[in-house]
Automatic annotation (TrEMBL), chains A, B:
Organism: Methanochimaera problematica
Pathway: Purine metabolism; IMP biosynthesis via de novo pathway; 5-amino-1-(5-phospho-D-ribosyl)imidazole-4-carboxamide from 5-amino-1-(5-phospho-D-ribosyl)imidazole-4-carboxylate: step 1/2
Keywords recorded for this protein, A-Z: ATP-binding, Ligase, Nucleotide-binding, Purine biosynthesis
InterPro entries: SAICAR_synt/ADE2_N, SAICAR_synthetase
Molecular function terms from GO: ATP binding; phosphoribosylaminoimidazolesuccinocarboxamide synthase activity
Keyword Magnesium: no
Name of the protein this chain belongs to: phosphoribosylaminoimidazolesuccinocarboxamide synthase
TM segment ranges: none
Presence of the UniProt keyword Transmembrane in the record: no
EC number(s) per entry: 6.3.2.6
PANTHER family xref list: MULTIFUNCTIONAL PROTEIN ADE2 (PTHR43599), SI:DKEY-6E2.2 (PTHR43599:SF3)
Amino acid sequence: MKLVYTGKTKNVYALDDGNYLLKFKDDCTGADGVFDPGMNTVGLTMEGAGRACIRLTKYFFEILNQKGIPTHYIDADVDNVTMTVRPAKTFGAGLEVICRFRAVGSFYRRYGDYVEEAAPLPAFVETTLKDDDREDPPITKDALGNLGIMTPNEYDKVKALTQQIATIMKDELAKKNTELYDIKFEFGRIGDEIVLIDEISGGNMRAYRDGEYVMPLELEKMILDN
Amino acid sequence: MKLVYTGKTKNVYALDDGNYLLKFKDDCTGADGVFDPGMNTVGLTMEGAGRACIRLTKYFFEILNQKGIPTHYIDADVDNVTMTVRPAKTFGAGLEVICRFRAVGSFYRRYGDYVEEAAPLPAFVETTLKDDDREDPPITKDALGNLGIMTPNEYDKVKALTQQIATIMKDELAKKNTELYDIKFEFGRIGDEIVLIDEISGGNMRAYRDGEYVMPLELEKMILDN
């Protein structure tokens, strides 16, 4: 088992059968000890964060696989805080695909002149490059095509898949009386197939209950212990 | 003649016949006395800047009108540094449409991991909101539609028109041995018609001769005095 990548919140190992093993850490993105799913830096280490992450990821990926959504997920081992996945290639050095049901976060910061805070959005999709040095710049369908990162046809598939998956996630959260405001995904290619990759945990989404933001570790409890 | 708008580089007056008169100033965008067409602030005042702007704007709009491009331009008075235009409504509080033939400026700053500086681009189009407080945030076709600023159908028209006009501009500059790297336009609606508005001057574009950036006032001389 060979370490092939050391990430901010997990390490990636190559397995002998060609698949990968992801080992989750207890580090969370944020700044100065405050958790922020929108940040690029590791801001704090919370005991149990890795375990919460793998439990939620396992829970959601199994729902998605059952519904026929193409994903990289094979299985997860909660005790060892690991997940086995198929070997997908990222688009460029990684592309984040955000789906928004309400105007909060950077969407509201950018477009506050045209929208009320938390106004409903119709599964609006936008994409940003994973590039810490350039603060994850936003990128359009046309630019992705011009830079050879993703073809226009692939973009349309990724957008449709994102809206489908985000809607499944929204419905799952609604069953627990929690509202999904926005969520970010990452996709990859396995041959010609486009699949959902990475994790699906509290750090990937903004969820609210009774108008109050739900912290990631609380979200895990709300979803899995109710 | 009633002053209806005071801009950074020009004032706008309403005429009795329903048209508008634009009066150009000698102020240029930039910072600390250095001209920068990408900036939002007035950085310096250069004597003759207004006159250079109106001369170039008149020159280019007359070429475009002749080629059947829909614009707001009626005529210009170089001595009085004014231009008469049809009354167009901006998209939202104003939308800048950028067309890029080479990867420089903010495009290169954002996507430098995927493109060489000054690499050719195929009349790539992107849009930013005019919003000084939010530093002109980039915005996608989908977001423009969701926020009610521009319909997807209008976006497609504006994109095609932008590529057509930018190519005309590129050809005009090439006649003067100058290469157009990028250019920004603004469009507006007159009823259902979409027309090119604002000005077309050195401050709207990056032009290079023999690999060297041409300053706006030099550009005026190169285009009009050769």
